[in-house]
Structure prediction request, 378 residues.
Amino acid sequence: MNAFLRYLNSFTPLTGDVQEAILRITIRREVKAGELLFDQGNICKEFHYLESGIARVFYYKDGKEVTAWFASQGQIASAIDSLFSGKPSFYNIQLTEDSILWSLQFDKIEPVFEQFPVVERLGRLMITHNYLLLDERMKLFAFCSAEERYEKLLLQIPDIAQRTKLGYIASYLGISQEHLSRIRSTYKK
Amino acid sequence: MNAFLRYLNSFTPLTGDVQEAILRITIRREVKAGELLFDQGNICKEFHYLESGIARVFYYKDGKEVTAWFASQGQIASAIDSLFSGKPSFYNIQLTEDSILWSLQFDKIEPVFEQFPVVERLGRLMITHNYLLLDERMKLFAFCSAEERYEKLLLQIPDIAQRTKLGYIASYLGISQEHLSRIRSTYKK
DNA sequence: ATACGATTTTGATAATTATCAAAGGACGTA
DNA sequence: TACGTCCTTTGATAATTATCAAAATCGTAT
Prediction:
């Protein structure tokens, strides 16, 4: 069983015919570092599961790129706001490493929902999972200083600092690159 | 049809038997201002729909109360993090006005999911809706200054300043009460 | 109307963090 | 090895916002 199906099955057990129906609307892709997976202003119609690699989801604020979040192995690298709402997104998504992803064509999922009610359940559980991730991030901003947020990020992706630029991380944390640099210098004992 | 059923039907049409099944696990309540609906540390097992009134969802940070969000008429006033995860919440919920709410016993919903697949769909769409609300709030923090966030809040609940304390609003915006006070004084032309 | 308690505003100062500029480092290529 | 480019760190200053204290305002009961 491939990584994508293992991911789906971790939410709720799927029978063979359901898995086949899902794979029929899913494409496995190998993508090079630097590739833009999605551009703001478009409607996101693909559900991208990251088998390996790192994606940076970002938007523009006052002409500058601001990282909204990093998706790493085993996570979703889509403009979820648009995917779920059907409205244009203002996120951009770039793969900052060579990555392998499974792209489910979300605009073809409705018949699958209708044929297999268990897929409704799967959808519900997956969105719930992502809701909780977003809530975590919200709490992180509410509760934690930039230092603490940086430490939490390191727990999630320990080698993030080696895998992407400092400026990307700083904007994710909501602080300037210089400030992050200073935090790191005091912080390494 | 009551407000709660209208709310549910706005996501996906429900037949009479589904509505009955849902109402069987739902209680309508009138609650006085000031009442604590939920205490942190517990597992939230009720899905509260606010027919009228305002709820303040808050947590403690360094001994001080911080507002996570305000739920007003037509919204959900539950510790969603716990409701969806089954883990203890660290939110508290207080009704800051006399309110009417519909409390669905979420721990009794599983049989309803099994009997009526459309309820899985309903759940999926409702969570999706709440995901988008949370994403909006995230973007609000990322994009907007305290001033702009205050203005957006006023768009959502125009009379919020009359209906709850300034300190509650300030902590929601992530700024000190004094700072909000100063913003308001420059801002009223 | 008056007084009380709660809430909000104002003032002064301190802490935090951004910004701008320049200096270091790392790394690939000639 | 030397050079160029990109990225990170350091330094100095400015802007933003918090904090603490006191004054003003509001709401309500007397």
